[in-house]
Amino acid sequence: MAFPGSVTTCLSQPVHYVICKLGFEKKDTYDINNILSGNGEVRWQAVAEHVSYLGSDQSVDYIKSIRSLGPVCESVNLYFKSLTKEQFEIQYASWFHWTNCTEVFLGVFDVLQCTEATEVALGLMKLTSCLERALGDVYLLKSSDCPFLLRDLLASEQLADVFGQAVMDVLRVFIGSPHGLNLRNVLWHGFASPQEIPAKYCAMLLFLTAGLGQLLQTYLLQTEGVLAHRPYVIFVSLEELDAFPGKYLTTNLDNEMLAIAEELVKLSSFVLKTMLPFWIAALTAFKQGRYADCVILLLPQLEAGLRLLFTTTNKCPNRLLTAESSALYTTFDEMLAKHLDNGEVNQLPVVLEEPAMASDFLWDFLNHQEGPRVRDRLSHGEIKLETFPKEIANQLVGFAITILCRFSDEDMNSFKEHVGIKPLLHCASCYRSRFHPTALLSKQVLECMKSIQLWPELPTVPEDQVEKVKGLEGNAEANTLILMVSETISQLQHYLPQNCCSSDDPVNSVLTERLLVALCATRLCTLYCPRAVLEVVLLLRRIAAQCRRVSRQVSAGAALRYAQWLGRSLRSRQRHSYPRMLNSMKFLSPVLRLILLLITLELVSVHSVCKKNPFDYQQYLKFLKSVLQYTENLVTYTSPEKNKWDETMELTKKTLIKIREIIDRKLMLMHLAT
């Protein structure tokens, strides 16, 4: 691995020139009054005059525009430095209300008064994320589907209609275009060091944001419109993110642990020395309880460190630098992929001692669609920064410590054996994905099983008090279906753990939560999961979801009918359907539990076969789709509006016959027989 101290910048030469030099070439002193009216409003026309266009297609000439805007930005920066906090708030606070993040923008003014480059970079990252969110809210005044990428948002006709095309061209010089300064991306993706971001660009964006507020106020008055703000994302079920339990984080990362982390940062080969201030600032922010700031600073540095590993192990050192406008950045998505863009195998997982842990953790926290997607939501302004949860910061700092330990050039045994560090490394080695589709399927299965196991606790009318219904011959039909379930379990004996099946009661000895928990605990490799597996898992998740709906409907229906029976409010039709419901519950419970068992066995087995030799599974998928159709029909038949219990019984019998035939023909679980 290349020594990180030899890397002096992660900006390519052209990008470094554009950000660090181009805007300083003109030495003119610009009069702030040219772009600022007497009452503090931005003179947009005067600002827009500094944007140049190419003659061929009238697209923005970013080089000339940045060069011309350089003195303007410096003038704005000096102007802000001349104001007190009180003066700034009186003059500008109301113009930031449209962002729904007024305090964030006032905080950016504070950092501009200091000389700490790291704080300026952090302020700019927060500013761009909040500005993007606010611009998205404005976009929704004109359309119903906001673009995900800032680049597309700024280039939209909708925002040009509100603010004017010239105004949007000014913004695109600073953010949103790979041809311009592109300040948001070079910071959020960990390319720029603190010293490489001129404070005057942060000041200019703060100034322009206030100017946008002024334009928007005029637009809303003219159109009688109202700007609505989308609700922030709120993280729920934080315990599911507990990769490093609190007891292993020494009471949530105490000062001793953070002091060790600071030493690791200085010694680890994972850290680019030019980025060291970002790491120290992240840990300082954590100590001070600024958890959003900690994570905003930390995530780009994790990306930068992994990029260093990626480019070194794959022998493509040029990819460490920012790409030009004609190419793609090397970002998390590519670094976590199985193959490089040239088709060769990505060597990064080989270098990581626990590749599944590092990749699974990052995929869980950053990429999986049903995970927290922390980086996306922070960088796009979807999270309220003031209430960012400490729990997530805990996990990311804990993960960072394990990565720093793993990639250290010095003899780090003393650190690795520390009473606080050693358990973290153990947790890292045992980490399993929580938000990969297979992990979510396991969770669905277990939740559904818990729901079904509550059925016996539901209050029901004693059988001898239930009105006899013509055509309902005792328990014969239900017993027949239960017997079919028992016979199916016998077919599956070869695939089940030894001694889990009792010959006296195969249904209740096998179809248990304990068995499903044991099967779901099977460690599956979710990294680089083949498409064939994901297609099967998707179907299995849909089946499990329908089973859960059936369980909820049956539980709710049984409780309602019992209450109506007690209150003597059952209508004639309900008095006839209630006994059928009770009878159906006797066989639906084992049938649904059998389906959950089959789902779990398939989850384990389909990973194995597709990892070794992907099989022709079209007929197998057809079978799964038929099971899905059965569960969807069950949802309909067991709904309070339908109550089709006789049809449920007949449909269940046909489905059980089909399942047994499939198992006999070894189209299901065939790969486990080898």
UniProtKB/TrEMBL annotation:
Domain (DUF4209): give its ranges. 131-211
Q: Which domain of life is it from?
A: Eukaryota
Name of the featured protein? EMARD protein
